[in-house]
């Protein structure tokens, strides 16, 4: 069974982001970049399925500039078999990303696509669902547990009321939640091996996908700074402030 895992290069989750001076976008110059954490979980899950003898090949792909090769090499060092870079210099919107992924999936013909549920930059939580819709495949999102059979996948999802178990027929798309697994650390020998694994580069134009932007960003702004906290003497004073000042109860 072949598994495809899209990975995105984002600003490292431990770095404080800043905006460009004109407020048009997030300033990523000279910022530490890394693999989107949810995508890292997706890569780990695909590799575990291969190590369990369920998957036969794990293909990772990214969309962006040549700089995205670093996250693809990281995924290869974790244990993915080969990588694919869709070369694009512009930042694509979620629908355009889903269309590009559909084109790649139709070429690769995997039985399963595992996506991170969202990226930590755009935070849209749309691509996996859009991809499933475009392909006409079933989807099981926010997986905290994934079990694969010959023709189906069983996904446990965390919902407000507890757990929900969903079974979908393959091929399918699933997205990962935080509790699915803990990604492994890459070792130096595996990092060296990853340099020799295949990484193919495909021009975005060769896929024939319409990626014209359909959204307009009016502006970005920093969140308002938090005001200083207030010490209260007892629970009665706290309740009074919540009722009379904050008016939340």
**What is the number of E strands?**
11
User: Number of helical segments?
Assistant: 6
Order of helices and strands: EEEHEHEHEHEEEEHEH
- pLDDT < 50 stretches: none
Approximately how much beta-strand content do the residues carry? 25-35%
Distance between the termini: 54 Å
Topology:
Elements lengths: L1 E5 L2 E3 L21 E3 L1 H15 L5 E8 L4 H10 L3 E6 L6 H15 L3 E5 L10 H9 L3 E10 L3 E8 L2 E8 L2 E5 L11 H7 L4 E5 L31 H10 L5
Parallel strand pairs: 1-4, 1-6, 4-5, 5-11, 6-10, 7-10
Antiparallel strand pairs: 2-3, 7-8, 8-9
Helix pairs in contact: 2-5, 3-4
Describe this structure in words.
A nine-stranded mixed sheet has the order 9-8-7-10-6-1-4-5-11, with helices on both faces. It has about 250 residues and is an alpha/beta fold. The chain is built from six helices and eleven strands. The model has no long low-confidence stretch (mean pLDDT about 90).
């Amino acid at each position: 069974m072949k598994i495809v895992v899209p990975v995105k290069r984002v600003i490292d989750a431990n770095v404080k982001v800043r905006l460009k001076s004109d407020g048009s976008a997030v300033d990523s110059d000279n910022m530490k970049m890394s693999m989107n954490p949810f995508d890292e979980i997706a890569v780990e899950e695909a590799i575990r399925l291969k190590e369990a003898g369920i998957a036969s090949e794990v293909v990772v792909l990214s969309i962006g500039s040549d700089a995205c090769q670093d996250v693809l090499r990281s995924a290869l060092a974790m244990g993915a078999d080969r990588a694919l870079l869709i070369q694009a210099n512009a930042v694509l919107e979620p629908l355009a990303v889903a269309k590009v992924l559909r084109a790649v999936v139709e070429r690769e013909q995997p039985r399963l696509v595992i996506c991170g549920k969202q990226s930590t930059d755009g935070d849209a939580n749309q691509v996996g669902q859009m991809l499933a819709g475009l392909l006409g495949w079933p989807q099981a999102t926010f997986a905290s547990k994934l079990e694969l059979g010959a023709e189906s996948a069983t996904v446990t999802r965390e919902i407000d009321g507890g757990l929900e178990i969903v079974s979908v027929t393959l091929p399918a798309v699933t997205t990962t939640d935080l509790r699915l697994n803990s990604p492994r650390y890459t070792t130096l020998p595996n990092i060296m091996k990853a340099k020799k694994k295949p990484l193919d580069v495909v021009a975005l134009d060769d896929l024939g996908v319409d990626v014209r932007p359909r959204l307009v960003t009016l502006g970005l702004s920093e969140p308002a700074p938090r005001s200083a906290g207030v010490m209260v003497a007892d629970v009665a004073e706290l309740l009074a402030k919540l009722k009379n000042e904050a008016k939340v109860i």
